[in-house]
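Section 5.1 Outputs to date
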Amino acid sequence: MGVSGDREAALLIASDGALERESLPPGRDLSYTLGERRCAGAVDGTDHHACEDPTAPYCEAHDSTWVCAKCTGTCLKAEMDCHTEHAVYLAAFAPETFKVGVTRRPRLETRLREQGADRGALLRLAGFDVAERFDLEYGLDLKRAPVAETLAAGTVRGTKGRVLVLERAGGTFAVDMRRLVGYELLEGSSSRELQSSLGAFG
């Protein structure tokens, strides 16, 4: 299993060499038990190349480095994008964390959402003038912080960046979707006991 970087949150599920995109809209019920975990393999377009190596989430052969981080002037990527317009941006995360990043200009809002930013600003290099601002809403409206857990069963409340918020058995859980990469998915929910927040006891 992998996680999609598209605008709408989704799980990418590999099945018999193909990829299926499973959307995660609020209200959607997920009903999977996490099985064995191993290397997630590799994705090439819409094809998935499985790997049986038990190292998770990626084995040494599939744990690639982002090629642009070691640019030599000769592009190693299938599609060169370094000549497209890029944006320098500032991302803000509650309560007081900030990050400066670079992305292709058409992907700016998508990139801010992928990271789960609460606010973002497109910066201009000359004088660092703010060219555009983003107030990002995720519709979660949580009364208390969810419990961190690794699971794929429950009712989707929403997503914020790579975090999937699920309701299950009277509790609210935050799942870092990167931690789901490489798991075999089994149909049906597990009956294992889950930790609940103290606020669940009224």
